[in-house]
């Protein structure tokens, strides 16, 4: 388990930090892309450090561990950042919408301001944490077939002739 810990921590810190930085975290709207990339990174580092071929189950484990590290970062660091940065995010979204549709911009402003509470930030942070674990696990699963090029296991045994002579195993009658 210790050889999985370092890749999981590195992948988790990367996905956690990228998931809480305002504006950079928008990439997570695209199928939790930072979480998948964090799981991929953890899988890559684990394959690189493993002396033996790595199974997809190991990739899932290291991806889930990376997701847990990222989830802790998202909850501990991300919730306070989202509370502080929520006003800035609202202004950016509203100014963007004003250029497209001014009527929609005012409606968007009132909806966003109504949803900006501490309880809302906590709920959103916990939901994000669950998604980070799920998608980092998926990234770990995807990463093993991509990065593991070594052949696993022992070669199959050669066929043997159990009957002896012409009528033995493997001969046609």
Overview of the structural elements:
The protein is an all-alpha fold and 173 residues long. The protein has one domain (2-147). Helices cover 72% and strands 0% of the residues. It contains five helices and no strands. It has helices spanning 2-20, 33-49, 56-100, 102-115, 118-147. α1 (2-20) runs antiparallel to α2 (33-49) and α1 runs parallel beside α3 (56-100). The model has no long low-confidence stretch (mean pLDDT 86).
Low-confidence runs of at least 5 consecutive residues: none
Helix content: over 70%
Structural class: mainly alpha
Report on the biggest sheet: none
Shape: elongated
* Approximate strand percentage: under 5%
End-to-end separation: 54 Å
What pattern of helices and strands is seen along the backbone?
Answer: HHHHH
The radius of gyration is 25 Å
Number of strands: 0
Chain-averaged pLDDT: 86
Tally the helices. Answer: 5
How many structural domains can be distinguished in the coordinates? 1
Q: Topology, please?
A:
Layout: H1 2-20, H2 33-49, H3 56-100, H4 102-115, H5 118-147
Briefly characterize the structure:
The protein is an all-alpha fold and 173 residues long.
